[in-house]
Amino acid sequence: MPLTDSAQNKQPGVITCKAAVAWGPGEPMVIEEVELSPPQPMEIRVKVVSTSLCRSDVTAWLSQAQASIYPRIFGHEASGIVESVGQGVTEFEEGDHVLTLFTGECMSCRHCTSGKSNICQVLGLERKGLMHSDQKTRFFIKGKPVYHYCAVSSFSEYTIVHSGCAVKVSPIAPLDKICLLSCGAAAGLGAAWKVANISEGSKVVIFGLGTVGLSVAQGAKMRGASQIIGVDVMQEKYEKAKAFGVTDFLNPNDTDEPIPQVIKRITDGGADYSFECIGDTGMVTTALQSCCDGWGLTVTLGVPKLKPEVTAHYGLLLMGRTLTGSLFGGWKPKSEIPSLVEMYLRKEIEIDDLITHNLPFEDINTAFDLMKNGACLRCVIHMP
């Protein structure tokens, strides 16, 4: 419903809400009262409905791979309802259902207009804990700044994002399910479809059968891959993996033979495509070794927990293998994510079975423990 003139002219003010604040690396979240500024020009303020915990939140919380920025509000995989809009925003109105986007799309920079990339030069991945537009925070506790995560910070009852870092979705889509499409599930599907462009009859190996890895498997199955090999140290993941398309399961702890040799043996020379979905740069080399000569393609998706450098023998590349990275599955976030929501509504893609836990906001530390211990796929946090 369009806003009335009086509603459009009403200026939003500072609000107070509850947020899960991390005060230091690895320290439990504390539910705090925070002040949240009104949306600035080209920003929207969102009432968070559901937010799922992604492995990269845990990695950043432990400060294993990036700068330690605290106090901080994590969370980036979220759905919600627009509460208010800032000056200049025309594509969103109060009441719109949205997904937040940890990497945005300005529609006008070189990358956005190239048709070749989803790495926006204006609204790309934010690593300083600040907002894109003015390099300041919107959250405060007693006047002191609380830093953002990926310019989203969804572990809060309300948050602010740039209008280019949100996308409007169908109001009939269940917000407690489609939140997974704002990161993990979309990243895996896109890696299979857009980045690797898996061909029918091909052989695929996936390292790590979490949410992203299973979404890669689903995408490979839908593309008609003839063999989908899942590699994981947790045996109990196999039954779930089969439902997503995995045909063979390998546990590195169950064999003395190097995993690349096993894969070459059972694929007649190596996989056509391999995917590193763990966040281990050493595993990138293993994935590259598991591809076939000539055209084998390795896609790395995981955020590294420790050592960020990748090392590989030049001969692997000389023999025709390719190594590439994938951010958000290559999707242009605002332009293409709505189509995934529509696919979900038509029951063409599976999301629900990736959700293993549903928890209230006050149990957010339990969600972090589950993810840290590898005891869940996706835990959806339900906001009050």
From TrEMBL:
The species this protein was found in: Capsicum annuum (Capsicum pepper)
Record PANTHER family: ALCOHOL DEHYDROGENASE (PTHR43880), ALCOHOL DEHYDROGENASE-LIKE 6 (PTHR43880:SF5)
InterPro entries assigned: ADH-like_C, ADH-like_N, ADH_Zn_CS, GroES-like_sf, NAD(P)-bd_dom_sf
Cofactor(s) annotated in UniProt: Zn(2+)
An example Gene Ontology biological process: formaldehyde catabolic process
Keywords: Metal-binding, NAD, Oxidoreductase, Zinc
Xref: PROSITE patterns: ADH_ZINC
Entry superkingdom: Eukaryota
Domain Alcohol dehydrogenase-like N-terminal: 41-169
Record's subunit section: Homodimer.
Protein name in UniProt: Alcohol dehydrogenase 1
Family of the protein in this entry: Belongs to the zinc-containing alcohol dehydrogenase family. Class-III subfamily.
Residue spans crossing the bilayer: none
Residue ranges annotated for the Alcohol dehydrogenase-like C-terminal domain, each copy included: 212-343
GO molecular function: alcohol dehydrogenase (NAD+) activity; S-(hydroxymethyl)glutathione dehydrogenase [NAD(P)+] activity; zinc ion binding
Single GO cellular component term: cytosol
